Amino acid sequence: MAIRRAMSGRIMDRTAVVGARYMSSWWRSVQPAPKDPILGVTEAFLADQSADKVNVGVGAYRDDNGKPVVLECVREAERRIAGNLNMEYLPMGGSVKMVEETLKLAYGENSELIKEKRIAAVQALSGTGACRLFADFQKRFCPDSQIYIPVPTWANHHNIWRDAQVPQKTYHYYHPESKGLDFAAMIDDIKAKGHFAFFDMAYQGFASGDPEKDAKAIRIFLEDGHHIGIAQSYAKNMGLYGQRVGCLSVLCEDEKQAVAVKSQLQQLARPMYSNPPVHGALIVSTILSDPDLKKQWLKEVKVMADRIIGMRTALRGNLEKLGSPLSWQHITNQIGMFCYSGLTPEQVDRLTNEFHIYMTRNGRISMAGVTTGNVEYLANAIHEVTK
User: Fold this and answer.
1) Which GO cellular component does the record give, naming just one (predicted)?
2) Residue 180 lies in a domain
């Protein structure tokens, strides 16, 4: 029986107090988690008081002044949405309109696969959520399978499939000497073994400035008759980082299978988050379903991509102008937001300690952090640590 007594006008329940004391001991074994290798870079950068500090570790687009950007097409979509729509729950599978428009981007505007209703697709919590939803789907319905992850990859890929309890293997991808694709080793690792190809497409349109061109790899796999899965995100190509809006799609044998797969994806989403957020989905569907807004988006995404390409050219040019004996062709040969520079962990440490330049220790440079104002300083620093 609980013992109650009056104390300072309050009723105390001894069982509750004792219970709280015992519960506090449950977490004594919990140790601080290791810092995320990417987010930890930003934390260190923010703590640095140097006026010369440069962050080329951030995975988000910045303009030439180093500032975040909200696209004009997004602003216009928000104006149209404001006050005109309710904020009711979306279905577990998310916005049907947003998903339809998203599939057109990946599979093609006039895709027969879409017309045949062979694609199971649901709105997801950006690309990360799409990957995690697929990882759980894989574990539930192919429990004896494993995931092959390229070396290197986005560090969170390992976390996602690890927490979904899917065994992991790796395959060669990056060639350290050429700083390009190690095609021979990759093919040797993934010879025909009945694989299912899964694409994490976080930068469509952002790499080249043309969403159709950036979907070429996916179209090749489709033309070759593969069944594939795709995680799509609007974080980068629409700047909707904080809206967490994306899509997971799985190509199936026929419409009946697609219906079954979608129902199971929704069932997996239910205990995770029930249903996805509505605002980002409304922004995306408003932009992609309106010809004028879509045209504006295509123009704006090309501006972002062109700035990244321009910074690649400028960084390489500055390094070559300094007389570096090393080849820096890979800076302009690679595409997208990130550049695998070839810098060693020790050289990265020197950049941070001596020049206040922050990046992940594998030498990956976010070109979004490079501006006309800091590219010369960055090139000089890289030249110094690579002499």
Assistant:
1) mitochondrion
2) yes
Cα(94)–Cα(99) distance, integer angstroms: 8
CB contact at 8 A, 232 and 105:
yes
| Tokens representing residue 174 in the block | 């990056």
DSSP string, 172-222: E-EETTTTEE-HHHHHHHT-SS---EEEEE--TTTTTS-HHHHTHHHHHHH
pTM for the model stands at 0.89
R_g (Cα) of the chain, nearest Å = 24
Is 200 in the active site? yes
What average pLDDT score do residues 368-386 get? 97
Cα(125)–Cα(35) distance, integer angstroms = 22
Q: Work out whether the CA dihedral 264, 268, 274, 279 comes out positive or negative.
A: negative
Q: Which residue has the higher pLDDT, 9 or 208?
A: 208
Nearest alpha carbon to residue 352 among 24, 41, 5: 41
Decide if 236 is catalytic.
Answer: yes
Task: State pLDDT tens for residues 27-44.
Answer: 889 999 988 877 888 899
Nearest partner of 111 among 238, 259, 206, 249, judged by Cα: 249
Per-residue tokens: 232: 């799509």
336: left (phi over 0), alpha (psi -120 to 50) or beta: left
Q: Examine residue 277 and say whether the peptide bond preceding it is cis (omega within 30 degrees of 0).
A: no
Give me the percent of the chain exceeding a pLDDT of 70: 94
3-state secondary structure (DSSP) of residue 230: strand
Q: Looking at 200, 214, 297, 328, which residue is catalytic?
A: 200
What is the rounded distance in angstroms from the CA atom of residue 215 to the CA atom of residue 128?
19
358 is in which domain, residue-wise?
39-69+306-385
Give yes or no: residues 180 and 82 share one domain. Answer: yes
Please indicate whether residue 52 is annotated as part of the active site: no
Q: How confident is the model at residue 86 (pLDDT cuts 50, 70, 90)?
A: confident
Active-site entry in 161, 179, 236, 328: 236
Structural domain count, the chain: 2
Higher-pLDDT residue of 177 and 253 is 253
Of 154, 161, 297, 328, the active-site residue reads 154
One domain, residues 85 and 195: yes
